[in-house]
Write a structure and sequence with these properties.
Elements lengths: L4 H15 L13 H55 L4 H33 L7 E4 H9 L3 H6 L3 E5 L3 E4 L1 H17 L6 E8 L3 E7 L7 H5 L17 H11 L2 E6 L8 E7 L1
Parallel strand pairs: 2-4
Antiparallel strand pairs: 1-3, 4-5, 5-7, 6-7
Helix pairs in contact: 2-3, 3-8, 4-6, 6-8
């Protein structure tokens, strides 16, 4: 096959333009090896362009995440620094209060950093899920351990029904369930009830958590799983539910939400497909 020099130079110039980031259409509708080569170059250029866009999106996401993290950390750090400055000259009763508040702030920051590290591991794809058969009562028992004090302080009771075996990574699934139960506790009143139901059907096994609050607004429902967006609790960060959803999706699962309202609390159903 003979190819004239002009066509080669034109293709070379188009390739240089593509390298410089310009939009170039290499496609050729003619037959022959030369046209096939140009179409393959076009496909390669499109893939390169999409990878560039993806990297840009990831950079923007990382930048936004870092800004959100900095914002979340700045407030407790500023507050603790102020209390530390006032601590030495404060009366004894205020010193006790400041020390308590500083400890509380440090605990919240530790929790935030721990969750952010878990989310970063999931986002990077560096998590291996070791799936095994686990009974629902074992998952729930482990999930409520870190929430025992919170539930006791708010005098809330758990009502659990059903016994099902789940095929999942136990530690990560416990993390997801714990975050959903914590959300239910935060949105239930003092003395309220949190209802946990377990079951299965031919398509999936499921675990639902229903609070005894006032339900979710449409605005709250839309931002529910957006990081740093949804948190009616002034002490919340808006990352527990997004983490839970990421964990479920990494295991080919999902979380569906019923908004509730009119005397019913919100209900979160965690599904693991068979």
């Amino acid at each position: 096959m003979w190819i004239n020099k002009k066509d080669v130079l034109q293709l070379s110039e188009s390739i240089r333009q593509a390298i410089d980031g310009e939009s170039v259409d290499f496609r050729d509708n003619h037959e022959g090896a030369w046209s096939l080569l140009k179409n393959d170059i076009h496909t390669l250029n499109q893939l390169k362009s999409e990878e560039g866009h993806q990297l840009e999106r990831e950079r923007n996401h990382m930048s936004e995440s870092l800004a959100d993290i900095a914002h979340q950390l700045k407030t407790p750090i500023t507050s603790m620094l102020l209390m530390a400055d006032l601590l030495e000259d404060a009366p004894p009763e205020k010193q006790v209060e400041f020390i308590h508040n500083i400890k509380s702030g440090l605990s919240r920051m530790e929790w935030l950093v721990t969750v952010l590290l878990k989310m970063a591991r999931l986002d990077s794809g560096n998590v291996t899920f070791n799936r095994q058969r686990v009974q629902s009562n074992d998952l729930i028992e482990e999930a409520i351990k870190p929430l025992a004090i919170l539930l006791e302080i708010k005098e809330q009771r758990l009502e659990v029904s059903g016994q099902v075996g789940y095929w999942c990574d136990k530690s990560w699934t416990v993390e997801a369930i714990s975050n959903v139960i914590k959300n239910a506790s935060e949105h239930s009143p003092v003395g309220g009830r949190i209802t946990i139901l377990c079951g299965e059907n031919p398509m999936y096994t499921w675990l639902s958590v229903e609070d005894s609050g006032n339900g979710l607004s449409q605005e709250g429902l839309r931002s529910l799983f957006q990081r740093f967006e949804y948190s009616d609790n002034i002490k919340g960060f808006g990352i527990g539910l997004p983490l839970a959803l990421s964990i479920m999706r990494e295991q080919k699962g999902e979380i569906e939400v019923e908004a509730g309202g009119k005397g019913r609390g919100a209900c979160f159903t965690m599904k693991l497909y068979k």
